[in-house]
Automatic annotation (TrEMBL):
Protein name: UPF0260 protein LPU83_1247
Sequence similarity: Belongs to the UPF0260 family.
A Pfam family that the UniProt record links to this protein: CxxCxxCC
InterPro entries documented for this protein: Puta_zinc/iron-chelating_dom (IPR005358), UCP006173 (IPR008228)
UniProt lineage: Bacteria, Pseudomonadati, Pseudomonadota, Alphaproteobacteria, Hyphomicrobiales
Domain of life, source organism: Bacteria
Source species: Rhizobium favelukesii
PANTHER family found in the cross-reference section: UPF0260 PROTEIN YCGN
Length: 163
């Protein structure tokens, strides 16, 4: 029997169809958290403060099609700029493929289930506060590092069925 090799293992990002490209997003919501940039070093820090359009539970954008009407500075990830966006979390599907790595067990393309990303604990589900509830001057009180480390524990949690 011939096993079909999944598209993300055979194609570069540039070769993917729009549908394939879109499906690389695991729905973690981490890129929709506010980030702070240190003015002198340029270092970027994640906060637990979510964009006003991000749903705390589903981790989806509430108005994806019209988001720029509400959030003009929302960054659209594209095949052209994926290389330049240094703040994509290490678990991001686009970052992994762009770096020549594989998707992990929790990715919906691997598991076949959009919930595994939450079960693995790598998503923003239930641990963010809306930017509408925090004064911009207080953003630095919400700096967190879990968006960068969630994958470490999740990799060890790989269920037997996914091995
Ligand atoms: S960080 Fe990457 S995988 Fe997660 S929601 Fe954003 S684009 Fe999708
Ligand atoms: S507008 Fe939507 S896609 Fe853009 S950062 Fe906010 S929640 Fe994310």
């Amino acid at each position: 029997m011939m096993e079909k090799i999944p598209f993300w293992k055979t194609k570069t990002l540039a070769e993917m169809t729009t549908t394939e490209w879109e499906s690389l997003c695991d729905g973690c919501g981490l890129c929709c958290l506010n980030k702070l940039e240190e003015w002198d070093s340029g270092d970027i820090y994640f906060t637990s403060i979510r964009c006003k359009l991000l749903d705390n539970e589903s981790c989806r954008c509430a108005s994806y099609e019209n988001r720029w009407d509400f959030v003009p500075d929302c960054v659209q990830l594209t095949k052209q700029n994926v290389d330049e966006i240094a703040w994509l979390p290490p678990t991001c599907g686009y970052r992994l493929i762009n770096e020549g790595r594989d998707l992990y067990w929790w990715h919906p393309l691997v598991s076949g289930d959009p919930e595994t990303v939450h079960a693995a604990g790598i998503s923003a589900r239930g641990r963010t506060i809306s930017e509408t509830e925090v004064d911009v001057d207080d953003f630095e009180d919400y700096v967190v590092d879990w968006p960068l480390t969630v994958g470490d524990e999740a990799r060890a949690k790989q269920p037997e069925t996914a091995k």
